[in-house]
Amino acid sequence: KEAKLWGGRFEDGVTDAVERFTESISYDKQLYKHDIMGSKAHATMLAHQGLMSVSDRDRIIEGLDEIERRIENGKFNWRTDREDVHMNIEAALTDIIGEPAKKLHTARSRNDQVLTDFRLWCRDAIDNMITRIKNLQASLVHLSLKNEGLIVPGYTHLQRAQPVLLQHLLLAYVEELERDAGRLADCRARMNFCPLGACALAGTGLPIDRFMTSDALGFTAPLRNSIDAVSDRDFVLEFLSANAITAVHLSRLGEEWVLWASEEFGFITPSDSVSTGSSIMPQKKNPDPMELVRGKSARVIGDLVTLLTLCKGLPHAYNRDLQEDKEPVFDSVKTILGMLEVSAEFSQNITFNQERLQKALPAGHLDATTLADYLVKKAIPFRTSHDIVGRAVALCVSKKCQLQDLSLDELRSISTAFDEDVYEFLGVENAINKFSSYGSTGSACVASELNYWVTKLEIR
Ligand code: ARG
After folding, report:
1. Domains of the chain
2. pLDDT tens-digit profile of 178-190?
């Protein structure tokens, strides 16, 4: 067996079970690019500070390039006995270039190294996520543009409430996603500080330049406190919180579309390309992708809870527990990237069933609140007009008809404030046209809302 990089004070090696249990190479190899990037910046700084010769630096950088090539060509031998990505790469570097490799870990610990890698990895992940969020927003805006003027029932308590433009509902998701992207951007800015040079926990007496490595790696500045630098994972907690919120938003989109694709609603038809069938029921066509978007949100929430629980009560500074921080982050990012991608594809592959919606809309007295506002315009106090319209609705329920079917005499038998012009307020089309407050579902408001997003997202 090969001696461990840390093996000097040990007489015996670890048992196989301990080796299997403590390794992280099986998943942290994903950090290789960022580990190599960090090592190059570190070696460059060490040479600049006179802690290594320029020729050693050059051999280290060449060796790291060679390792990166081998990894990318699938020719790198990842070894469990070398524990993690950091020691795999350092030991391989020693295999390839020999003695100069032994200078690379000067004024560095795996504790600051792993966090440098991880922050760089998360930074890239956030950039990818923001791109995917924008893409989903764009898909929803396209869907809005395709369905101009389409009215859908708006619900509260999942009971019919007021008519809304489909565009208005779709743009509600676009707003939520914008805040999701904003949370990630905020998190990225707070995350972008460099732990490298904090070493194990206390820093070093060697003349390193932490500002140089921080700059080289695109960080805003080095972290101010070496203990904080190696102990805290709040940047991950914040990242996973943002992901969990995004996942919750996507689960609501998933639920809405699953519901709308049902025979009972029948508002949308997903195309075959985003549907799946049943192994027993020949007639089935299921919206599985959006069900899984709904379902996978559980994992993303779970990943956050795992991390919160992991960090709770940990003493300063580094504890090996913290090695457990990576898998939930990898899982969260992979899951949510998939959720965003599939949600965008699904929205590009549904059609709204205009006929069905047309038939469905009259039910539920969606224009009742608009009618109450009509009476307010006739100087009736709102609470009174609410009561009057309530009685008109009760009449409709007993007659099994809509508000617009009531005659003027019938309406006037409830309140003499009703006039001939009342019919301009009844029916969903009329009702939609009456909305005019800022941010409302009125056609003009929605048109300017849509315009805002078309410009902001640079659509078309
Ligand atoms: N693989 C370890 C982790 O992810 C690297 C740091 C290990 N440090 C240590 N002192 N054992 O946390």
Report:
1. 7-106 (1.10.275.10), 111-356 (1.20.200.10), 360-456 (1.10.40.30)
2. 999 999 999 999 9
